[in-house]
From TrEMBL:
GO molecular function, one term: methyltransferase activity
Protein source organism: Cudoniella acicularis
UniProt name for this protein: O-methyltransferase domain-containing protein
Amino acid sequence: MAAMDENSLILLDEMALPNQNVDWFATQTDLTMLSAFGSMERTEAQWYKLLETVGLKVQGISTYTHAFRLSIIAASL
């Protein structure tokens, strides 16, 4: 049985960096992720691409903390 149907919405609480002109505070967090864990924070474009590869479509990104770019990413089938 599928976990989602055409009316389902998945909400992700993540950093969604702008594609350019990133605030220094968010950049600092991204560099910390790189140096400490070998990972990175994603840009909005990267979130769209990642979710598309698993069959999801971004319905919207709502940023609630602009310095950190903490955001709710809503995606559906």
